[in-house]
Specification:
31% of the residues lie in helices and 13% in strands. The chain is α/β, with parallel strands linked by helices.
């Protein structure tokens, strides 16, 4: 079936969409699809609320996966995601390049160009470590505002050694470096990230297990990082750190501790379509209500959902 993303992509330069070697065969999804339709949450989000972490997965014939990936996703298209955004009460979103596409950001590029009226989108890319200024300028014009460095998943990509060079290249654009890292398994990463002269964002609670509490060494490393003015973190994807699906009650103390340390440097994300949730596939309406339980103060929650994302990603005032 044709869709808006495919129609737009047909108008782009054919060489930009040339499939990578070995990507011709259709691969069968091996993870669950997201729950649809999303239920309406009990929590009402403020105007300008932002989902700061979501992914899209397009038709494989148009957006080929890397030959080796740690999962094969279902098609999860822009129009599907916009319905979820509308249901939970967000008008803004940040699309994060998934590891299964490597540094081919075509799908997000197309989505940024096709954002429907009433929805504002930004992107976070994965790039070649040798990316030049002209390509960064092009991505910036399209709506990209950061680079993701994935140190915790099973697909190869940018490494920590690339971060210092990239930090210098993105500084004039006001971009950030986003890290998906496991502070439980690699607590030394926090020490190395402290040395970077750039705005940093840490995904998914730094993968520190909620069951170990706020005194766990990995979580203390995350808090130490968050005490630095250049470091932000995402309250997102609790299924990475908790088995208490769907309420994730044991995550609440972690969120409270992070809020205490960095009240103006936290953002929230659904991680739609939850490629890593597996048996804990959440309803995004539940995730919206979970945020309200983690952060019961409405003013603090509004900062997390509106003003902090606006500053980070360059959204206009709602």
């Amino acid at each position: 079936m044709r869709n808006a993303t495919t129609e737009h992509a047909d108008n782009r330069a054919s060489e930009h969409h040339r499939p990578i070697s070995g990507a011709g065969d259709q691969r069968v999804p091996n993870i669950p699809a997201p729950i649809v339709p999303t239920r309406m949450p009990r929590t009402q989000f403020p105007r300008g609320a932002t989902d700061c972490h979501a992914h899209l997965f397009g038709p494989q014939e148009r957006y080929p996966l890397l030959p080796q990936t740690h999962f094969v996703p279902h098609e999860c298209l822009l129009e599907d995601y916009v319905r979820t955004l509308t249901a939970i009460g967000c008008q803004r979103a940040v699309l994060i390049q998934p590891s299964v596409y490597g540094n081919r950001n075509d799908l997000i590029e197309d989505a940024l160009a096709l954002a429907p009226e009433g929805v504002s989108l930004r992107g976070v890319a994965v790039v070649d470590p040798d990316i030049g200024e002209h390509e960064l300028e092009r991505l910036h014009r399209l709506g990209f505002r950061g680079i993701r460095i994935n140190l915790a998943a099973g697909t190869s990509g940018l490494q920590l050694s690339d971060a210092r060079v990239l930090a210098n290249r993105i500084r004039s654009f006001g971009w950030h470096l986003q890290f998906y890292a496991d502070f439980q398994q690699q607590p030394e990463l926090a020490d190395e990230l402290e040395q970077l002269d750039a705005t940093l964002i840490i995904d998914h609670f730094g993968r520190t297990p909620a069951a170990e509490g706020t005194n766990a060494p990995g979580f203390q490393k995350l808090l130490r990082l968050l005490r630095r003015d250049n470091v932000y973190a995402k309250l997102s994807a609790p299924y990475f750190i908790s088995q208490q699906h769907p309420d994730y009650q044991d995550v609440a103390p972690l969120a409270a501790a992070m809020l205490d340390v960095a009240p103006d440097r936290l953002v929230w994300g659904t991680d739609w379509p939850h490629a890593s949730a597996r048996a804990q596939m959440p309803d995004d309406g539940d995730l919206a209500d979970v945020l309200a339980r983690w952060i019961p103060d409405a003013d603090a929650r509004a900062r997390i959902l509106t003003s902090t994302p606006a500053r980070l990603y360059g959204f206009d005032d709602p």
